[in-house]
Amino acid sequence: MKTTHLLEAEQIKSGYENKTVVHGVDLIIPSHKISVIMGANACGKSTLLKTLTRLLKPLYGKATLDGTPIDQLQPKQLARILGLLPQSPIVPEGITVADLVGRGRFPHQSLLGGWTKEDTKAVAEAMDIMNVTELANRPIDELSGGQRQRVWIAMALAQQTDILFLDEPTTFLDITYQVEILDLLTDLNQQYGTTIVMVLHDINLSARYADYIFALKQGKLIAEGDPSDVITSGIVKEIFGLDCTVIKDPISDAPLVIPKGRHHVKNEMRIRSSISSE
Amino acid sequence: MNNTSSLEMISTGRRQRRLRGMAVTSLLALLACVLSVSMLLLGNTIYSISDVIRVLFGEQVQGVSFAVNTIRLPRMLAGLLAGFAFGIGGCVFQTMLRNPLANPNVIGITSGSSAGAVFCIIILQADRMVISVASVVAGLATVIVIYLLSRGKVFSIGRLILIGIGLQAMLDAFISYFLLVGAQQDIPAALRWLTGSLNGTQMHELPPLIFTVLFFTPIVILLGKQLSILELGEQSAISLGVNTDKTRLGLILGSVCMIAIATATTGPIAFVAFLSGPIAKRLVGAGFLSLVPAGLVGVNLVLAADLLGQFAFDYRYPAGIITAIIGAPYLIFLLIHMNRKGDL
After folding, report:
1. Helix (H, G, I), strand (E, B) or coil at B148
2. Which class for A18: exposed (0-12), middle (13-18), buried (19 or more C-beta within 10 A)?
3. How far apart are CA B38 and CA A135, in angstroms?
4. Which residues of A touch B285 (CB under 8 A)?
5. B98 touches chain A (CB under 8 A)
6. Which residues of A touch B13 (CB under 8 A)?
7. Where are the transmembrane segments (chain B) (predicted)?
8. What is the pTM of this model?
9. Do residues A244 and A237 touch, judged by C-beta distance below 8 A?
């Protein structure tokens, strides 16, 4: 079982040159759970994720791990606890799957030390979990999008961190692969207790797969908690400006958001919606 | 789960890649030795190996001692060290910026160092030490100017390369101007600063190059592991625990110093920094750090080009002309290839 950690954001304001995107967020990442950061485009969810993983220095406030600000920890030491799969990682030309996954071992290697049996074991395990062992000696360039994404997650797993951040791991994937990736991440969380934090675009998949949801609006945390408490028509309207009905997902009992646009809305639903909005 | 077989698959793959890398590195080193020895044996008169060995061990051999000690040995050492410096330095830039075009030959760093050296030699009539320092300073200044000019809202490698090419054209114009006002400079000297050459290298010019290569090579190789993580992009590198700013600074300082001092000694031997990395990568395959192989490819390119230039034609050509003949078509090929792939 992975170690329990306290990863905390205190009063974080962050952003880019003269443009603050995250306006004072306090949060604690629940250990051994799957959390999803949710919000509309440009609400600061990726920026918050980058600040929590020290890709971005906060303009104000701090992110702390077990009480120590993350930028004061040794980079390699932090990299053994906290891993991140960025939104669009870069594949060096011609590199094979096993070699790429092996690069996840970097924080465990010393300056002069070479590759160890421990490293091979970690890589094999990560590839088995993500089901890419068969591809071990194939070049990444030849793989499909879904396979590639599993390889990247395998690299993050070879890093053997207790906490794993993923920035939109399912974007650009077919629905089949989206579900496959989320299932594999859930396996990982249940078998090893890895704390998972991700940004996801799809509200319904978030509602089903998350144990905990952080809802962001214009850089502020407006709701957090269990998906069934956070994903309500009121909060969805507030975050996305979208009218909707929330029902129980018949498969998982998680909340399921049914959007209501201007067209294709049955008459009786129109009336209901005008009543409920008053 | 079939863990033993996956363990085996991974170790076998690793072993194969390592074996190939080591085999290629050894062969390149062997070829470099053969070429170095040929440099000592061949010339207007061909000497026997035993004569050359006796001379190298300090014996006086009538006729042989002078030619080997004052002409052939410095020429060979200059080619060996400069080739290695160009090869490894070029490969560092290409890997760090993830683009074979982003190398010191194309983006003007070698031209910057040349301009610095030529200015000191022709205008200031300065001594060796000043020339070495000036070429390093000019090389680093070129990097800084490229960095400042190409820094936009979003970093774009295409913009960096275009700015580098423009800067190179400008610096080459400075070099031509210095050579023109230097008037009495003879044509071979001018050629050295335009394409690079081992002609007339003297022993007393070599210490800065020897020191720089011996000092910076281990540093750059040690940073190689970080470099291969940096290849995965800034964000992945940071989350894997690489101190990206420090690593980049170390790599740039190390490779620019090596390239600049090599340029100050032999002139900018055309395209060696550009060709070595891609050739080495192709030979060793992905997944084996190709810095040392790139350095060795650089050595082989320079020595082979010098031998060809000396003996293959009726007229003696400097090494840089020969490497330019190989390098220029490759540059065109790469531009077409990258344009098709949409990398440009």
Report:
1. helix
2. exposed
3. 46
4. 94
5. yes
6. 96, 98-99, 136-137
7. 21-42, 76-93, 105-124, 130-149, 161-183, 209-230, 251-277, 283-305, 317-338
8. 0.88
9. yes
Listed in sequence order, the DSSP H helices in chain B are 3-41, 49-56, 64-66, 73-96, 109-118, 128-150, 157-181, 187-195, 207-222, 224-230, 234-239, 244-266, 272-284, 291-311, 319-341
pLDDT digits (tens, 9 = 90+) for B263-276: 988 988 989 999 99
CB-based contact A260:A273 (threshold 8 Å): yes
Q: What is the ipTM of this complex?
A: 0.88
Residue recorded with tokens 């964000």 = B235
Phi, psi dihedral angles at A177 (to 5 degrees): -75, -30
**Which residue is listed with tokens 């084996």?**
B288
What span, in angstroms and rounded, lies between the C-alpha atoms of B9 and A151? Answer: 16
Amino acid at B96: M
pLDDT in tens, B206-252: 999 999 999 999 999 999 999 999 999 889 999 999 998 899 999 99
Domains assigned to chain B: 24-341 (1.10.3470.10)
B15's CB contacts (< 8 A; 6+ apart) are none
- Give the domains, in start order, of chain A with CATH numbers: 7-233 (3.40.50.300)
Element (H, E) at A244: strand A244-248
- What distance in Å separates the CA atoms of residue A67 and residue B86, rounded to the nearest whole number? 48
Residue B2 in contact with partner chain A when CB distance is under 8 A:
yes
